[in-house]
Amino acid sequence: MNRDLQELRRRIDQLDDEILRLLNERSTYVIEIGQLKRQNDAGANLHTPAREAEIIQRLTSRNPGPFPSDAIRSVYREIMSASLSLEGPQKVAYLGPRATFTHLASRQKFGESAQYVPVTSIKDVFTEVERGRANFGVVPIENSTEGVVSHTLDMFIDSPLLIYGEVLLEVSHHLLSKSGAKEEITKIYSHPHALAQCRNWLETHVPNVPLSEVASTARAAEMASEDASAGAIASELAAHLYGLKVVQSRIEDNINNFTRFLVLAKTAPQRTGKDKTSVMISVKDRAGALYDLLRPFASSGINMTKIESRPSRRKAWEYIFFVDVEGHVEEERMKKALDEVKSRCLFMKILGSYPAHA
């Protein structure tokens, strides 16, 4: 048996050597592609979601197994992340500090090889990208339990940035502490949304422990790392980065707890064939206004996936609707619908056409 085991491991080592050789050969072509991109358009984004989606789709559709297709996605995300770093540095601004769920979403989108820049507010994420200090920005837009992030919507009113992509992240909350013992926790810190999403568990299992709201789940983990009597509700990544132990995992009340994040950039991504378009529309508060807005999309057979209203803040009784629809702005039916919508509203701003979360 030992002889058979050694032989199998020897073959695996040979395959690993071949995989390494092929990765480096692949990297030489990646570097050449980066050079060609810069020659043709010095200001273009090196990151190309359409090409990434094409690679993943091709590999997963041809995968004979037993290696799982979901794992192919994860492996190639990191291969492409490392490859992109060879083409040029990719800086990603996100709502920090480290180990927030926005940080997790950023890593899910861009992999380990990107350069991550934590900032203290959603406005600062927009500013970093607008001023060219970051190639991309990642901001939360809505949670399946707590609803929309209004400040993100408001920022789009005046920002020139486009939506470059989206990330849908399953949010799992863990109770963390230095010791890992629940009985030693005398106070619990977390972001207000996290506390709200774990309300039932907290009331049942730690009813007498006071809860304190802080700016982020990562900040809660940092505070717990400095106080042995404190607990924090945060991510598994936060436990790793701040040296904490998991007291209880997955304490969120709703197991289907997802947060959607938007990727921001100065330029638009290429069309992929599975895209989403976001539009901001201003209308007067009058009978039938919303119906007039929605009818062109329905008439063109375009599926609407989200609509959210906000006061315009510029004039009383005017509202701005943020609308997500399936399809790309370059499609003829989309052009027709948007032209019709534009003729019926006070103003319209296309926030971007981008790959829908896969």
UniProtKB/TrEMBL annotation:
Matching Pfam families: ACT (PF01842), CM_2 (PF01817), PDT (PF00800)
Record's keyword terms, sorted: Amino-acid biosynthesis, Aromatic amino acid biosynthesis, Cytoplasm, Isomerase, Lyase, Multifunctional enzyme, Phenylalanine biosynthesis
Domain ACT: 278-355
Residue ranges of coiled coil: none
Translocase listed as a keyword: no
Name under which the protein is recorded: Bifunctional chorismate mutase/prephenate dehydratase
Residues the record marks as site: Essential for prephenate dehydratase activity: T259
Cellular compartment(s): Cytoplasm
Gene Ontology molecular function: chorismate mutase activity; prephenate dehydratase activity
Domain Prephenate dehydratase: 91-266
InterPro entries for the chain: ACT-like_dom_sf, ACT_dom, Chor_mutase/pphenate_deHydtase, Chorismate_II_sf, CM_dom_sf, CM_II_prokaryot, G/b/e-P-prot_chorismate_mutase, Preph_deHydtase
Transmembrane regions: none
An individual GO BP term: chorismate metabolic process
A Gene Ontology cellular-component term: cytoplasm
Reactions that this protein is recorded to catalyse: chorismate = prephenate; prephenate + H(+) = 3-phenylpyruvate + CO2 + H2O
Keyword rRNA-binding appears in the UniProt entry: no
Function text: Catalyzes the Claisen rearrangement of chorismate to prephenate and the decarboxylation/dehydration of prephenate to phenylpyruvate.
